[in-house]
């Protein structure tokens, strides 16, 4: 076949020069399928408390398909619940709608007001039930699948199976609980003011019992005392002298998690204020009209009461109990996670806050592997220098080692490790496996469990969100300590709780604070520190303004006593 020259007509040349060819190419490119991005991993968050909300606020939601499930559609600033019971702060001032929080994140984050009642880790599905609507079957149940599940459902009040507690006592875990207590206090005063009651019946109605001498119970008793003395005594002058507040604690002292100086001050102050503190008493039964207590010295006693608030610790929610049975944790009190907040023996499931506790890995469980990793020359013995070469990784993986060294209670190897730098003779000393085990045999006594507080849950939520945000990068560039039982490094550094201090409001504009560095502060100045910290910690400017205005209103007009 011969090649012939072709003359291009003028009209076609004009078409090409005017960009017709480019337009044709563009139209052809539209027909080519664009490469689709891989689907985002689905992250399901159960709960809108401190852990769940902090996780959501810090999570890069553009990387994941995020779904939130909770029976309440708001976040509550729970440390101010005792203030709600006395009318110092209004309930709506301490809550922020969860949808408003999510809307500030941008992206397509879904929220469903429902309650999870079953987790199926085998199929990675959760069973939920809505309280605000029903499906075609009429039961409001639906399934949600997940790639990652973050359990942040908190805990319920622990009644220790004491008869009559659920039926006759108030709890103080939710905003609704605080509202019920507030109404109940006013009902007690109104009943005591009725004309047909005798004095014994009035005393019974005005006897307020608080069971549990922890921070919540103590703060509620102090808040109630202020409410009675500063406001209700003026409104109910004929019965105000009959009011009695009792605080019952099974231990020998109240506020046992605080420094003894704070404990002693709180007990002395409550004594001066007329609050009856009964330590060493265990409540064994609660009936409609009386509370029965046991004391080794006096035996069983029964006291009549008008209202009782039960604040004695936390218990696990029923569906979490069932979930623990499925994954082999049936004998535990709460969910066990590792140092990265991953639920043990459960792929893709994390837990934060009161519903879980970190099961810190013991040094003695891995002592042989630690020895193997440190023994780089495979000599069967360790020098101090070899141990020091991996000491930072050991500190990070097993924080109890550093705590033990700092306590200066370790003999032999501890003194050696602390003084070996720059001493060639000591660095050349060698330890066999048995000597190494003996040196570290008591290290695990420094393993500590974290308290069930908002501070812990918030820090865990922030840590977990940071891990999720760096998930892809950490696969290629791990930043954690060396793996003792495998090759390479862990993707992330383990979670470390940083204690920022704790408050104990004691009424009368006095607060006790235990801050880092063993700094104890008690008095009126600490109350103003409490005001500033709690105002700063509010989740939005809206709630911050509302809480501060409530405090100002109380200073000017007093607390509201209406039964609303």
From TrEMBL:
InterPro entries: EF-hand-dom_pair, EF_Hand_1_Ca_BS, EF_hand_dom, FAD/NAD-bd_sf, FAD/NAD-binding_dom, NDH-2, NDH2-like_C. Belongs to the NADH dehydrogenase family. Residues 362-397 form the EF-hand domain. SMART domains: EFh (SM00054). This is NADH:ubiquinone reductase (non-electrogenic). PROSITE patterns: EF_HAND_1 (PS00018), EF_HAND_2 (PS50222). It is found in: Mitochondrion inner membrane; Peroxisome. Keywords: Calcium, FAD, Flavoprotein, Membrane, Metal-binding, Mitochondrion, Mitochondrion inner membrane, NAD, NADP, Oxidoreductase, Peroxisome, Transit peptide. It catalyses: a quinone + NADH + H(+) = a quinol + NAD(+); a ubiquinone + NADH + H(+) = a ubiquinol + NAD(+). It is a peripheral membrane protein. Gene3D superfamilies: 3.50.50.100. It is an enzyme of class 1 (oxidoreductase). It comes from Eragrostis curvula (weeping love grass). PANTHER family: EXTERNAL NADH-UBIQUINONE OXIDOREDUCTASE 1, MITOCHONDRIAL-RELATED, NADH DEHYDROGENASE. The keyword Secreted does not apply. The lineage of its organism: Eukaryota, Viridiplantae, Streptophyta, Embryophyta, Tracheophyta.
């Amino acid at each position: 076949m011969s090649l012939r020259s072709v003359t291009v007509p003028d009209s076609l040349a004009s078409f090409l020069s005017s960009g017709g060819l480019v337009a044709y190419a563009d139209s052809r490119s539209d027909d080519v399928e664009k490469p689709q991005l891989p689907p985002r991993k689905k992250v399901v968050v159960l709960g809108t408390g401190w852990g769940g909300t902090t996780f959501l606020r810090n999570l890069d939601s553009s990387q994941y398909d995020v779904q939130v499930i909770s029976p309440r559609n708001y976040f509550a600033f729970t440390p101010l619940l005792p203030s709600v019971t006395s009318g110092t702060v209004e309930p709506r001032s301490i809550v922020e709608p969860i949808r408003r929080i999510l809307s500030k994140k941008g992206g397509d984050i879904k929220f469903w007001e429902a309650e999870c009642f079953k987790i199926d880790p085998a199929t990675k599905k959760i069973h939920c039930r809505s309280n605000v609507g029903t499906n075609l079957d009429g039961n409001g149940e639906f399934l949600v699948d997940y790639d990652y599940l973050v359990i942040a459902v908190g805990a319920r009040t622990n009644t220790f199976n004491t008869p009559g507690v659920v039926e006759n006592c108030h709890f103080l875990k939710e905003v609704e609980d605080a509202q019920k207590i507030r109404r109940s206090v006013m009902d007690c005063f109104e009943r005591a003011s009725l004309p047909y009651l005798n004095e014994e019946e009035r005393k019974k109605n005005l006897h307020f019992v608080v069971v549990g001498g922890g921070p919540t119970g103590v703060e509620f008793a102090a808040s109630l005392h202020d409410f009675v003395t500063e406001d209700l005594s003026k409104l109910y002058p004929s019965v105000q002298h009959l009011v009695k507040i009792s605080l019952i604690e099974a231990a020998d002292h109240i506020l046992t998690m605080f420094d003894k100086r704070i404990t002693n001050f709180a007990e002395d102050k409550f004594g001066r204020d007329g609050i009856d503190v009964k330590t060493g008493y265990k409540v064994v039964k609660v009936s409609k009209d009386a509370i029965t207590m046991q004391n080794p010295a006096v035996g069983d006693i029964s006291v009549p009461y008008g209202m009782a608030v039960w604040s004695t610790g936390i218990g696990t929610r029923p569906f979490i109990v069932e979930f623990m049975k499925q994954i082999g944790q049936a004998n535990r009190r709460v969910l066990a996670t590792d140092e990265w907040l991953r639920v043990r023996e459960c792929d893709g499931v994390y837990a934060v806050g009161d519903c879980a506790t970190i099961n810190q890995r013991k040094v003695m469980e891995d002592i042989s592997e630690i020895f193997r990793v440190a023994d780089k020359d495979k000599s069967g013995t360790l020098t101090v220098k070899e141990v020091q070469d991996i000491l930072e990784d050991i500190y990070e993986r097993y924080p109890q080692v550093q705590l033990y060294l700092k306590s200066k209670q370790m003999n032999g190897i501890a003194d050696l490790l602390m003084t070996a730098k720059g001493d060639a003779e000591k660095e050349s000393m060698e330890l066999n496996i048995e000597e190494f085990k003996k040196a570290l045999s008591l290290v695990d006594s420094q393993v500590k469990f974290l308290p069930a507080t908002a501070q812990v849950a918030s820090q865990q939520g922030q840590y977990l969100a940071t891990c999720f945000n760096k998930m892809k990068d950490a696969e290629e560039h791990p930043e954690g300590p060396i793996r003792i039982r495998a090759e390479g490094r862990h993707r992330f550094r383990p979670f470390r709780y940083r204690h920022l201090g704790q408050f104990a409001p004691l009424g009368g504009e006095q607060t006790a604070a235990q801050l880092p560095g063993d700094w104890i502060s008690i008095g009126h100045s600490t109350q103003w520190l409490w005001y500033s910290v709690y105002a700063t910690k509010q989740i939005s400017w809206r709630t911050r303004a509302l809480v501060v205005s409530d405090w100002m209103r109380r200073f000017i007009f007093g607390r509201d006593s209406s039964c609303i």
